[in-house]
Amino acid sequence: MVDRVRFAFTEVDPSLGALSTLPYLPIVLTYQNQSLRVSGLLDTGSSVNVLPYEMGLRLGAVWERQRLSVPLGGNLSKFEARAVVMTANVEQFPPVELAFAWTKDRNAPLILGHMNFFLAFDVCFYRSELAFEVSPKRY
Amino acid sequence: MPFTELVPLLKKLSHAEKLLLLHFLVAELLKESGLVPLSDGGTPASQGLYDSFEAASVLARALAEEKVATHG
After folding, report:
1. Does A5 score more than 90 pLDDT?
2. Does B56 lie in the same domain as B31?
3. Per-residue pLDDT for A56 more than 90?
4. Mean per-residue pLDDT for A70-87?
5. Are B26 and B42 part of one and the same domain?
6. Do B55 and A72 lie within an 8 Å CB cutoff?
7. Which of A70, A76, A112, A118 has the highest number of chain B CBs within 10 A, making it the mutation to test binding with B?
8. ipTM score here?
9. In three state form, how does the secondary structure of chain A look?
10. Domain-located, residue A77
11. Hey, is the C-beta of A70 within 8 angstroms of any chain B C-beta?
């Protein structure tokens, strides 16, 4: 099995070209029996994973059934957030459980942060090559 | 602008504008000193997702509970 996969940075604004590229990772999230193919921003500056409200709803999560409240900082501090655990598939790697701060903010991006994406995967950034590599954590 | 010229202008400000100016100056001084302002509760205010450690601990708890529910 391949132990590392290389991805290209994603250009966000064509008029700015390489200046507007960000490391978005294609990922399949599954909650109970519902799956969604999405792109998450790899954010080493975030303590937590963040799931936007609409995405949680599309995956069939029910807000009222999530009982752990998550105190987020920064711009998201004014929105309520609750913990939700999803199964995540990256490429052909074994599936992992990712815990998200499911925010009520409808404009938040899907963020993959330290708790617990970067505990489950090792990531190496090659910003000058506009690429990054992801591999499952070694046990 | 010399400070002596600034003072008469500042005196013309309303009470609310003086308060806002005070708030602005305190915020500038804190920023220049690299200090984090305190929240209403007297604890350092969170600056962003980068220091949402309490949130991270809640997610760790959610993961642990999920493992127990799934694997017993």
Report:
1. yes
2. no
3. yes
4. 92
5. no
6. yes
7. A70
8. 0.91
9. CCCCEEEECEECCCCCHHHHEECEEEEEEEECCEEEEEEEEECCCCCEEEECHHHHHHCCCCHHHCCCECCCCHHHHHCCEEEEEEEEECCCCCCEEEEEEEECCCCCCCEECCECHHHHEEEEEEHHHCEEEEEECCC
10. yes
11. yes
